[in-house]
Amino acid sequence: MIITVQRHADPSLVRKQLIELGLWVKRFDDSGAVRFLVEPHSARVTREQLLGVAGVGEVAVPRSSTPLLDAHPATLRIGTVEIGASAKPVLMAGPCSVESEAAVTELARKVAACGATFLRGGAFKPRTSPYDFQGHGKAALGWMRRAADDNGLLVVTEAMAPAEVELVAQYADLLQVGSRNMQSSPLLRAAGASGRPILLKRGMASTMDEWLAAAEYLLLHGAAGVVLCERGIRSFDTFTRFSLDLAAVAYLTHVRRLPVVVDPSHGAGRRDLIASLSRASIAVGAAGLMVETHEQPGEALSDGPQALPIAVLDDLGRELFSHARAQTPAVSGRVSACGSELS
Ligand code: PEP
Ligand code: MN
User: Fold this and answer.
1) How many domains in the chain?
2) Cα angle value 129/131/134 (rounded, 5°)
3) Full-model pTM
4) Which residues are near ligand 2, the ion (C-beta closer than 5 Å)?
C-alpha cells in the first residue's frame, strides 16, 4: 500500500507508528509529498487501520499481480498432512529417480521410519543430458504409489509436460512442477486444471516475482493450493550446485505467509552440507524439507552425490522430525559419515 503523509505531519513519527504495526516501510518522496510504500502482506493491517494512524493522509492500494496467491492460506492440508505456518515441519524424502519397484518399496518403509510423511521420487525425469537416465515413467508411478500406500505416505512426483499431467495426477497427492519448467505456461495451466495441490519448485534462474506469478497461474487454472519449493538458484558462484536462497524462504514464510519447503539436496548438490542447510531452512521458517536419499548413493542412477544414505536421513529425522516418527533411541555421529561423493 502507498501512504501519503499529511502535509504538516512529522514523517518520522508516522514512520515509527507504521513500523510499530509490524510493517516493512520504504520512504519515497513524490510531487512534494512524503510517501511510504508498505508491504501489503507483512502484517494483517487493513487500510482503515492505516487511515487511523496519526499523520496519515491517503492510503492507496495498488492492484496486486497475485490476488489469488494473496488469499492463499498459510497452511495447506493435503490428505492427512498439514503443511505451513500452523503445522510442524514435514519431511518429503525418497530417491531422485524411482529406479525399481524393489528399491522404492524398501526406501518408502525406511523414509517413513525416519519421519517422512511424503515419498518423493521422479518417474518422469527432467535430465540435462538426453543420454542420462530419463525415468521409468508410468511404471514407476505405480511402484511409488503402492510403496507409499503400504507405509502411510503421500506421493509427490513431477509432471514435465501438459500431456503427462492427467496420468501423474492419478498417482500423486502433490503434483510437482520442476525447476526447469517453472515458467512453462502450458504446463502451469494443465497442472492447475488437474485440481490437485501443486509443489512449485523455483526456476533456477527465476526472480521472486516470476516464481509468484507462476504460482498465480496454477491457482487461476484451478489448483487446490500451492506449496512453493526453494531449491537453489544460479549465482556467479558454482562452488555448490546452486545457491540456496534462504532469504526468499524467510520472506515467503513471514511476509507473504505462504507454505514453502526447501530442497537442500539440489540446492547444495553434495550430501555433506544437507544437514546444516536443513537446520537453517527450518530456522528461517520453512514448512518442511524435500530431501533425496538412496540406499547406496554411489550407485544411484541420478544425483548420487547429493543423496543422503538412510542412516544420515535417520539422524536428520531424529533431530528435526521427531514429532513425525516412532521414538527410537538416539544414535549420534553418523552425519559425519557422509563426506564422500561416492559413499
Ligand atoms: C527433482 O526434485 O526431482 C528435481 C528434478 O528437482 P529440480 O526441478 O529442482 O531440479
Ligand atoms: Mn535429483
Assistant:
1) 2
2) 85
3) 0.93
4) 96, 303
